[in-house]
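User: Okay, second chain of the day. Same drill as before: sequence in, C-alpha coordinates out.
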Amino acid sequence: MSPAELALPIVDAALADRLRSRMATVEEALFEHASSRAPYVTAAARHLLAAGGKRFRPLLVLLAAEAGPRPDADEVLTAACVVEITHVGSLYHDDVMDEADLRRGADSANSRYDNLVAILTGDFLFAKSSELTAQLGPDAVRIQAETFTRLVEGQILETVKPGPDEDPLQHYLDVVAGKTGSLIATSARYGALFSGAAPEVVEALTQYGELVGTAFQLSDDILDIASETEESGKTPGTDLREGVPTLPVLLARASQDPDDGRLLELLDQDLTDDALHAEALDLLRKHPALAEARDHVVARAQEAKKLLVVLPEGSVRAALESFADVVAVRSA
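Assistant: Same drill. C-alpha coordinates below.
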Protein backbone atom coordinates (compact mmCIF):
# COMPACT_ATOMS: atom_id res chain seq x y z
CA MET A 1 0.00 0.00 0.00
CA SER A 2 1.15 3.53 -0.69
CA PRO A 3 0.57 6.55 1.61
CA ALA A 4 -2.00 7.78 -0.91
CA GLU A 5 -4.18 4.79 -0.07
CA LEU A 6 -4.71 6.06 3.46
CA ALA A 7 -7.87 8.10 3.98
CA LEU A 8 -5.74 11.03 5.15
CA PRO A 9 -2.88 12.61 3.15
CA ILE A 10 0.33 11.42 4.85
CA VAL A 11 3.57 12.60 3.23
CA ASP A 12 5.96 11.30 5.87
CA ALA A 13 6.74 7.69 4.90
CA ALA A 14 7.61 6.54 8.42
CA LEU A 15 4.37 7.94 9.84
CA ALA A 16 2.38 6.41 6.98
CA ASP A 17 3.95 3.02 7.64
CA ARG A 18 3.10 3.21 11.35
CA LEU A 19 -0.48 4.16 10.62
CA ARG A 20 -0.93 1.44 8.01
CA SER A 21 0.39 -1.17 10.42
CA ARG A 22 -1.96 -0.05 13.21
CA MET A 23 -4.88 0.24 10.80
CA ALA A 24 -4.31 -3.39 9.81
CA THR A 25 -4.59 -4.32 13.49
CA VAL A 26 -7.76 -2.26 13.85
CA GLU A 27 -9.25 -3.81 10.71
CA GLU A 28 -8.76 -7.30 12.07
CA ALA A 29 -10.18 -6.30 15.45
CA LEU A 30 -13.28 -4.76 13.86
CA PHE A 31 -14.35 -8.09 12.41
CA GLU A 32 -13.63 -9.86 15.69
CA HIS A 33 -15.79 -7.37 17.59
CA ALA A 34 -18.62 -7.60 15.04
CA SER A 35 -19.30 -11.20 15.96
CA SER A 36 -22.13 -12.92 17.77
CA ARG A 37 -22.94 -16.35 19.12
CA ALA A 38 -25.47 -16.51 16.28
CA PRO A 39 -23.82 -16.89 12.83
CA TYR A 40 -26.71 -15.03 11.17
CA VAL A 41 -26.13 -11.98 13.37
CA THR A 42 -22.39 -12.11 12.70
CA ALA A 43 -22.99 -12.18 8.94
CA ALA A 44 -25.38 -9.24 9.10
CA ALA A 45 -23.08 -7.22 11.38
CA ARG A 46 -20.04 -7.80 9.18
CA HIS A 47 -21.89 -7.06 5.94
CA LEU A 48 -21.12 -3.33 5.74
CA LEU A 49 -17.69 -3.75 7.32
CA ALA A 50 -16.80 -6.10 4.49
CA ALA A 51 -18.10 -3.58 1.94
CA GLY A 52 -15.13 -1.37 2.81
CA GLY A 53 -15.13 2.39 3.35
CA LYS A 54 -12.41 4.94 4.00
CA ARG A 55 -12.07 4.06 7.72
CA PHE A 56 -11.41 7.76 8.19
CA ARG A 57 -12.60 7.88 11.79
CA PRO A 58 -10.32 5.15 13.18
CA LEU A 59 -7.43 6.53 11.14
CA LEU A 60 -8.00 9.95 12.70
CA VAL A 61 -7.90 8.30 16.15
CA LEU A 62 -4.50 6.83 15.31
CA LEU A 63 -3.16 10.04 13.82
CA ALA A 64 -4.34 12.17 16.75
CA ALA A 65 -2.69 9.64 19.08
CA GLU A 66 0.65 10.60 17.54
CA ALA A 67 0.27 13.89 19.43
CA GLY A 68 0.74 12.04 22.72
CA PRO A 69 3.60 10.02 24.24
CA ARG A 70 1.82 6.64 23.90
CA PRO A 71 0.43 6.46 20.34
CA ASP A 72 0.50 2.67 20.32
CA ALA A 73 -1.42 2.21 23.60
CA ASP A 74 -4.01 -0.58 23.58
CA GLU A 75 -6.66 1.96 24.55
CA VAL A 76 -5.99 3.90 21.33
CA LEU A 77 -6.65 0.80 19.22
CA THR A 78 -9.81 0.04 21.19
CA ALA A 79 -11.02 3.61 20.74
CA ALA A 80 -10.41 3.34 16.99
CA CYS A 81 -12.72 0.31 16.93
CA VAL A 82 -15.33 2.13 19.02
CA VAL A 83 -15.72 5.02 16.59
CA GLU A 84 -15.83 2.85 13.46
CA ILE A 85 -18.34 0.38 14.92
CA THR A 86 -20.49 3.31 16.04
CA HIS A 87 -20.28 4.82 12.57
CA VAL A 88 -21.11 1.56 10.79
CA GLY A 89 -24.02 0.95 13.16
CA SER A 90 -25.43 4.34 12.20
CA LEU A 91 -25.19 3.42 8.51
CA TYR A 92 -27.56 0.50 9.01
CA HIS A 93 -30.15 2.88 10.43
CA ASP A 94 -29.43 5.53 7.76
CA ASP A 95 -30.14 3.06 4.98
CA VAL A 96 -33.49 2.11 6.48
CA MET A 97 -34.48 5.75 6.80
CA ASP A 98 -33.28 6.58 3.28
CA GLU A 99 -34.71 3.37 1.82
CA ALA A 100 -31.32 2.89 0.18
CA ASP A 101 -30.56 -0.09 -2.06
CA LEU A 102 -26.78 0.29 -2.09
CA ARG A 103 -24.10 1.20 0.41
CA ARG A 104 -20.41 1.34 -0.53
CA GLY A 105 -21.20 -0.37 -3.81
CA ALA A 106 -22.82 -3.38 -2.13
CA ASP A 107 -26.40 -4.22 -1.23
CA SER A 108 -27.53 -2.21 1.77
CA ALA A 109 -28.45 -4.31 4.80
CA ASN A 110 -32.13 -3.47 4.49
CA SER A 111 -32.02 -4.55 0.84
CA ARG A 112 -30.05 -7.74 1.50
CA TYR A 113 -32.06 -8.69 4.59
CA ASP A 114 -34.99 -6.44 5.56
CA ASN A 115 -35.63 -3.28 7.58
CA LEU A 116 -36.13 -5.12 10.86
CA VAL A 117 -32.84 -6.99 10.58
CA ALA A 118 -31.02 -3.81 9.50
CA ILE A 119 -32.34 -1.84 12.48
CA LEU A 120 -31.53 -4.58 14.98
CA THR A 121 -28.08 -5.08 13.45
CA GLY A 122 -27.40 -1.38 13.92
CA ASP A 123 -28.53 -1.74 17.52
CA PHE A 124 -26.25 -4.76 17.94
CA LEU A 125 -23.26 -2.76 16.71
CA PHE A 126 -24.13 0.14 19.02
CA ALA A 127 -24.21 -2.38 21.88
CA LYS A 128 -20.79 -3.69 20.84
CA SER A 129 -19.35 -0.18 20.75
CA SER A 130 -20.74 0.38 24.26
CA GLU A 131 -19.05 -2.81 25.51
CA LEU A 132 -15.73 -1.62 24.11
CA THR A 133 -16.20 1.90 25.50
CA ALA A 134 -16.73 0.44 28.97
CA GLN A 135 -13.22 -1.01 28.75
CA LEU A 136 -11.87 2.52 28.33
CA GLY A 137 -13.22 3.80 31.64
CA PRO A 138 -15.86 6.24 32.89
CA ASP A 139 -14.55 9.28 30.98
CA ALA A 140 -14.89 7.40 27.71
CA VAL A 141 -18.37 6.20 28.66
CA ARG A 142 -19.43 9.80 29.29
CA ILE A 143 -17.86 11.04 26.03
CA GLN A 144 -19.44 8.24 24.04
CA ALA A 145 -22.85 8.87 25.60
CA GLU A 146 -22.65 12.58 24.76
CA THR A 147 -21.49 11.78 21.22
CA PHE A 148 -24.24 9.25 20.69
CA THR A 149 -26.84 11.73 21.94
CA ARG A 150 -25.66 14.29 19.40
CA LEU A 151 -25.52 11.72 16.60
CA VAL A 152 -29.08 10.51 17.19
CA GLU A 153 -30.34 14.05 17.75
CA GLY A 154 -28.86 15.04 14.39
CA GLN A 155 -30.54 12.07 12.76
CA ILE A 156 -33.89 13.04 14.26
CA LEU A 157 -33.54 16.69 13.26
CA GLU A 158 -32.84 15.60 9.70
CA THR A 159 -36.29 14.04 9.51
CA VAL A 160 -38.06 17.13 10.90
CA LYS A 161 -38.46 20.35 8.94
CA PRO A 162 -37.43 23.52 10.79
CA GLY A 163 -40.26 25.41 12.45
CA PRO A 164 -41.58 28.76 11.21
CA ASP A 165 -39.37 30.66 13.65
CA GLU A 166 -36.25 28.61 12.90
CA ASP A 167 -33.50 29.42 10.40
CA PRO A 168 -33.46 26.53 7.86
CA LEU A 169 -29.73 26.99 7.27
CA GLN A 170 -28.86 26.83 10.97
CA HIS A 171 -31.16 23.83 11.34
CA TYR A 172 -29.24 22.05 8.59
CA LEU A 173 -25.84 22.97 10.04
CA ASP A 174 -27.01 21.55 13.38
CA VAL A 175 -27.94 18.31 11.60
CA VAL A 176 -24.51 18.05 9.97
CA ALA A 177 -22.70 18.87 13.20
CA GLY A 178 -24.66 16.19 15.03
CA LYS A 179 -24.64 13.44 12.42
CA THR A 180 -21.06 13.89 11.19
CA GLY A 181 -19.09 16.43 13.20
CA SER A 182 -19.74 14.86 16.60
CA LEU A 183 -18.21 11.43 15.93
CA ILE A 184 -15.25 12.83 14.01
CA ALA A 185 -14.59 15.22 16.89
CA THR A 186 -14.68 12.27 19.28
CA SER A 187 -12.29 10.35 17.02
CA ALA A 188 -9.65 13.05 17.33
CA ARG A 189 -10.41 13.45 21.04
CA TYR A 190 -10.03 9.75 21.80
CA GLY A 191 -6.71 9.53 19.98
CA ALA A 192 -5.20 12.45 21.86
CA LEU A 193 -6.74 11.46 25.20
CA PHE A 194 -5.71 7.81 25.27
CA SER A 195 -2.20 8.50 24.02
CA GLY A 196 -1.65 10.78 27.02
CA ALA A 197 -1.58 14.13 25.20
CA ALA A 198 -1.77 17.34 27.23
CA PRO A 199 -5.30 18.62 28.02
CA GLU A 200 -4.90 21.64 25.74
CA VAL A 201 -3.95 19.32 22.87
CA VAL A 202 -6.97 17.09 23.54
CA GLU A 203 -9.26 20.12 23.50
CA ALA A 204 -7.73 21.59 20.34
CA LEU A 205 -7.93 18.32 18.43
CA THR A 206 -11.53 17.82 19.54
CA GLN A 207 -12.46 21.20 18.09
CA TYR A 208 -10.39 20.45 15.00
CA GLY A 209 -12.30 17.21 14.42
CA GLU A 210 -15.65 18.95 14.79
CA LEU A 211 -14.75 21.62 12.24
CA VAL A 212 -13.10 19.34 9.71
CA GLY A 213 -15.79 16.69 10.01
CA THR A 214 -18.56 19.20 9.43
CA ALA A 215 -16.68 20.85 6.56
CA PHE A 216 -16.04 17.48 4.94
CA GLN A 217 -19.75 16.71 4.88
CA LEU A 218 -20.61 20.17 3.56
CA SER A 219 -18.05 19.79 0.78
CA ASP A 220 -20.07 16.78 -0.40
CA ASP A 221 -23.02 19.16 -0.75
CA ILE A 222 -20.97 21.35 -3.07
CA LEU A 223 -19.69 18.43 -5.11
CA ASP A 224 -23.26 17.22 -5.58
CA ILE A 225 -23.97 20.45 -7.45
CA ALA A 226 -20.62 21.40 -8.95
CA SER A 227 -19.05 18.14 -10.09
CA GLU A 228 -19.50 17.10 -13.70
CA THR A 229 -18.59 13.50 -12.90
CA GLU A 230 -19.38 11.02 -10.13
CA GLU A 231 -16.30 12.05 -8.12
CA SER A 232 -18.41 12.46 -4.98
CA GLY A 233 -19.41 8.81 -5.16
CA LYS A 234 -22.85 9.45 -6.65
CA THR A 235 -24.40 10.97 -9.74
CA PRO A 236 -24.13 14.80 -9.70
CA GLY A 237 -27.33 16.44 -8.56
CA THR A 238 -28.60 13.37 -6.70
CA ASP A 239 -29.48 15.30 -3.55
CA LEU A 240 -31.11 17.99 -5.68
CA ARG A 241 -33.21 15.41 -7.52
CA GLU A 242 -34.29 13.81 -4.24
CA GLY A 243 -35.21 17.13 -2.65
CA VAL A 244 -32.55 16.84 0.05
CA PRO A 245 -31.69 20.29 1.45
CA THR A 246 -27.99 21.03 1.04
CA LEU A 247 -25.79 24.04 1.77
CA PRO A 248 -25.87 25.60 -1.75
CA VAL A 249 -29.64 25.11 -2.03
CA LEU A 250 -30.30 26.64 1.38
CA LEU A 251 -28.02 29.59 0.65
CA ALA A 252 -29.78 30.15 -2.68
CA ARG A 253 -33.16 30.09 -0.95
CA ALA A 254 -31.93 32.63 1.60
CA SER A 255 -30.39 35.05 -0.93
CA GLN A 256 -33.68 36.87 -1.67
CA ASP A 257 -32.36 37.93 -5.06
CA PRO A 258 -35.30 39.01 -7.26
CA ASP A 259 -33.62 37.28 -10.21
CA ASP A 260 -33.91 33.91 -8.47
CA GLY A 261 -37.58 33.47 -9.26
CA ARG A 262 -37.16 30.63 -11.74
CA LEU A 263 -34.66 28.77 -9.53
CA LEU A 264 -36.89 29.03 -6.47
CA GLU A 265 -39.83 27.87 -8.55
CA LEU A 266 -37.84 24.81 -9.64
CA LEU A 267 -36.64 24.04 -6.12
CA ASP A 268 -40.27 23.82 -5.04
CA GLN A 269 -41.07 21.31 -7.77
CA ASP A 270 -40.58 17.60 -8.26
CA LEU A 271 -37.14 17.39 -9.87
CA THR A 272 -37.34 13.75 -10.84
CA ASP A 273 -38.15 15.10 -14.30
CA ASP A 274 -34.83 15.10 -16.18
CA ALA A 275 -35.37 18.40 -17.98
CA LEU A 276 -36.40 20.29 -14.83
CA HIS A 277 -33.55 18.70 -12.89
CA ALA A 278 -30.99 19.74 -15.52
CA GLU A 279 -32.33 23.30 -15.56
CA ALA A 280 -32.20 23.61 -11.74
CA LEU A 281 -28.70 22.15 -11.65
CA ASP A 282 -27.51 24.62 -14.27
CA LEU A 283 -29.02 27.59 -12.43
CA LEU A 284 -27.48 26.49 -9.13
CA ARG A 285 -24.04 26.11 -10.70
CA LYS A 286 -24.27 29.73 -11.91
CA HIS A 287 -25.68 31.08 -8.63
CA PRO A 288 -23.50 33.03 -6.14
CA ALA A 289 -24.67 30.59 -3.46
CA LEU A 290 -22.22 28.00 -4.78
CA ALA A 291 -19.25 30.33 -4.20
CA GLU A 292 -20.71 31.29 -0.82
CA ALA A 293 -20.91 27.63 0.13
CA ARG A 294 -17.28 27.11 -0.90
CA ASP A 295 -16.24 30.13 1.17
CA HIS A 296 -18.03 28.64 4.18
CA VAL A 297 -16.18 25.32 3.84
CA VAL A 298 -12.79 27.00 3.30
CA ALA A 299 -13.36 29.18 6.36
CA ARG A 300 -14.11 26.13 8.54
CA ALA A 301 -10.98 24.39 7.23
CA GLN A 302 -8.84 27.45 7.99
CA GLU A 303 -10.37 27.66 11.46
CA ALA A 304 -9.44 24.03 12.04
CA LYS A 305 -5.83 24.56 10.93
CA LYS A 306 -5.39 27.47 13.34
CA LEU A 307 -6.20 25.13 16.23
CA LEU A 308 -3.16 23.00 15.40
CA VAL A 309 -0.72 25.60 16.72
CA VAL A 310 -0.76 23.64 20.00
CA LEU A 311 1.18 20.90 18.20
CA PRO A 312 4.89 21.12 17.40
CA GLU A 313 5.76 21.49 13.74
CA GLY A 314 6.34 18.11 12.17
CA SER A 315 4.74 15.27 10.22
CA VAL A 316 1.69 14.85 12.48
CA ARG A 317 0.73 18.50 12.38
CA ALA A 318 1.46 18.59 8.63
CA ALA A 319 -0.84 15.60 8.05
CA LEU A 320 -3.68 17.21 9.98
CA GLU A 321 -3.17 20.50 8.14
CA SER A 322 -3.14 18.66 4.81
CA PHE A 323 -6.44 17.03 5.54
CA ALA A 324 -8.02 20.40 6.29
CA ASP A 325 -6.60 21.65 2.99
CA VAL A 326 -8.01 18.64 1.13
CA VAL A 327 -11.45 19.40 2.54
CA ALA A 328 -11.20 22.96 1.24
CA VAL A 329 -9.78 22.05 -2.16
CA ARG A 330 -12.24 19.23 -2.91
CA SER A 331 -15.05 21.79 -2.74
CA ALA A 332 -13.28 24.31 -4.99
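DSSP finds 15 helices and two strands in the chain.

User: Thanks, on to the next one.
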